[in-house]
Please model this.
Amino acid sequence: MSAGLDTKSKPMHIYVAGPYSGNTTEKVEGNVTTAIMAAIELLNKGHYPYVPHLTHFVDKVEQTTLALLWEDHLDWGLAWLDKCDALLYIGKSRGADIELEYALSKRKKVFRDISEVPSIGSRRHYLKQLGIPVD
Model:
């Protein structure tokens, strides 16, 4: 976890780590949906999720100059994990396990269940900092 981070009052940037790959399109899309649902719960708790599964949609775009391999997606995710305060581990996979080990090596806070993530009771922290009215 970042030094001096007060998880009871400040929002965390939380990386969502879980399975992406699957042997069918339905399995992959189900994994993406599961990660998005976890992200929604994090938002509702007042935090900012990063969902690497959303690179799924990059793969759906016609690629003419760049073909992203598994390693490219993992590297992209680790670059963002490095910037996050914490990791939410939602399920075992080769990539998620590497992300978990990386988070632990960087001494990031690791949550293994959404219920472990504290709710800070408010959202839209950056808008508030800018003085933009929010409901």
